[in-house]
Write a structure and sequence with these properties.
Layout: H1 11-29, H2 37-60, H3 64-88, H4 97-117, H5 123-144, H6 148-178, H7 191-204
C-alpha cells in the first residue's frame, strides 16, 4: 500500500484487473448473464496475467502487501480458468462440489489474512478485502452445502466487491493525474496507518 514514488503506481492497474473481472463473473453468478468466453478471456488476460504483472511491479516497489495481493489474485484467476478448462480438454475430471467449495474456502482464508492487513489502509481497501472474504465464503458454502441460492447472493455481493475495487482504482488514477485526492477513500485508521499516511504526504509534498 506504500509505493516508491520514483516509479509509476501499479496498484490501479491491478485493482482494475481484479475489479472488472470480478464484476463480469458475478454478473453470471447473479444470473444476469450466462457463462461465456468473454468471462473466461477476462479472467485469463486481465484478471490473471495483467494483475499478476502488477504484483511483480509492486515487488520492485518494495510493497509486500501489494505484491502478495496482486500476484495471489492473479494466480487465482489463472487457476480458476484452468480449473474450468481442464475437464473440457479431457485432461482432468471435473471437481466435486466439496472440492470446489474447499477451493473457494481456502481462498477465503487467504483473503481474510489480507483483510486484516488492510486495517492499516484506507476504508475502501477494507471494503474490498472484507467483501471479498465474504464472497469466497458464500461461494464455497454454496458448493459444499448444495445451496444454489447462496451463489445468487454471492453474485450480488460480488458485484459490490468488484465495483468497490474499480472505485478504488479510479480514486488512485485520478489522484495521480490531478496531484490531489479527487474521490474519497477514507483515511487510514490507527497510529501505524496514520504514520504511513503522513509519510506519504511528505513524499508527495
Amino acid at each position: 500500500m506504500a509505493h516508491d514514488h520514483n516509479n509509476a503506481n501499479p496498484a490501479p492497474l491491478g485493482l482494475m484487473g481484479f475489479g472488472m473481472t470480478t464484476v463480469l463473473l458475478n454478473l453470471h453468478n447473479a444470473q444476469i448473464v450466462p457463462m461465456g468466453a468473454a468471462i473466461m478471456a477476462m479472467g485469463l488476460v486481465f484478471g490473471g496475467v495483467t494483475q499478476f504483472t502488477a504484483g511483480v511491479l509492486e515487488y520492485r516497489n518494495d510493497n509486500t502487501f501489494g505484491m502478495t495481493a496482486f500476484m495471489g489474485y492473479g494466480a487465482f484467476w489463472l487457476s480458476l480458468v484452468v480449473l474450468l478448462c481442464l475437464p473440457q480438454w479431457g485432461l482432468a475430471p471435473a471437481s466435486a462440489p466439496a472440492l470446489l467449495g474447499s477451493y473457494m474456502w481456502i481462498w477465503g482464508l487467504f483473503t481474510a489474512i489480507m483483510a486484516v492487513g488492510s486495517l492499516v489502509a484506507s476504508r475502501m481497501h477494507q471494503v474490498v478485502f472484507f467483501s471479498l472474504t465474504v464472497l469466497f465464503v458464500l461461494l464455497g458454502s454454496a458448493e459444499i452445502f448444495a445451496r444454489p441460492i447462496l451463489t445468487l447472493v454471492a453474485g450480488y455481493e460480488g458485484l459490490l466487491c468488484g465495483f468497490s475495487a474499480i472505485y478504488l482504482a479510479a480514486a488512485e488514477i485520478l489522484e495521480a493525474q490531478f496531484d490531489r485526492p479527487v474521490l474519497p477513500t477514507g483515511l487510514p485508521s490507527g497510529p501505524t496507518a496514520q504514520r504511513h499516511h503522513d509519510d506519504l504526504l511528505v513524499q508527495l509534498s
